[in-house]
Design brief:
Layout lengths: L1 H13 L3 H21 L3 H12 L5 H6 L14 E4 L6 E4 L4 H11 L16 H10 L8 H11 L16 H15 L3 E3 L2 E3 L8 E3 L2 E5 L6 H7 L4 H8 L12 E3 L4
Antiparallel strand pairs: 1-2, 3-4, 5-6, 6-7
Helix pairs in contact: 2-3, 2-5, 3-7, 6-7, 9-10
């Protein structure tokens, strides 16, 4: 039994490609950032990038920083031409790789992919199959290829990463603090655990728990009300220290 387990692990390791490992290391932080901004799993972004760009080594990617094979439709920027569905097909050209990752995220915000955002951020299989069903790719095995990449390279660990480098001590501390924050929640409702006697009604906005700011609210006062640390609420809402929410503004009280 132990031998079989060891053999399976060894086989999984031999399937890994160094160029792909290098690609993941180079672009994982960008994928995590885009996940936090747009709620697209980092594992999906990385797997698509690996598949579409040949781990960054395709001629199209090297020529244009286009990691996802996005074509020129509705594009006013620079272009390159590459044989694909037709000879000299038109593709978008980017000044740097991060622009390609951002454009990929915006591309998936189109209405045709709206159903994907009803899935959990950790449901990589649902996302992979959903992309195929929504017509992202014509390859009948596209979803299976994404899933295989995600599982082979253990990309799901980036779907729960809390920052640009999920392995550093600051992020580990944040994760531990989040667990402690959960312990401060005292009652259950249809919205999940919330503190007793809060002044704000908890709502869900794009699948995340939030409140609507009232006159006199600050991020710090809302954080105190919901048992959060000051840095947490600023982190959830991508705001700097000293920022004040406007009346009627959505203030997130949960990361997802």
């Amino acid at each position: 039994m132990a031998f079989c387990l060891f053999s399976s692990i060894l086989f999984a390791q031999t399937k890994r490609n160094q160029a792909t490992l290098d690609y993941i290391e180079k672009y994982k932080s960008i994928a995590i950032d885009k996940m936090q901004q747009h709620r697209i799993p980092a594992s999906i972004t990385l797997a698509q990038g690996i598949l579409e760009s040949g781990s960054g080594n395709s001629e199209l990617t090297r020529q244009s920083n286009n990691h996802f094979g996005i074509k020129c439709y509705d594009w006013t920027g620079e272009k390159v031409y590459h044989d694909d569905d037709i000879k000299d097909d038109c593709f978008r050209k980017y000044a740097k790789a991060e622009e390609s990752f951002e454009d990929h995220s915006k591309f998936l915000k189109k209405p045709r992919y709206a159903s994907l955002f009803e899935l959990e951020i950790t449901d990589y299989k649902g996302w992979a199959k959903g992309l195929k069903q929504c017509g992202y790719a014509t390859d009948p095995k596209y979803a299976d290829r994404l899933i295989t990449l995600i599982e082979t390279y253990e990309l799901t660990k980036y779907d729960t990463a809390s920052g640009n480098d999920s392995s550093n001590s600051e992020d580990k501390q944040k994760k531990e603090d989040e667990v402690k924050v959960e312990d401060n929640y005292l009652s259950e409702s249809s919205m999940g655990s919330i503190p007793v006697g809060t002044n704000h009604k908890v709502v869900k906005v794009e699948g995340r728990k939030a409140v609507i700011a009232s006159r006199g609210d600050t991020y710090e006062s809302i954080a105190k009300e919901f048992g959060l640390r000051k840095w947490e609420i600023r982190w959830y809402n991508k705001v700097k220290k000293g920022s004040v929410p406007e009346v009627g503004q959505t203030v997130y009280i949960r990361k997802w």
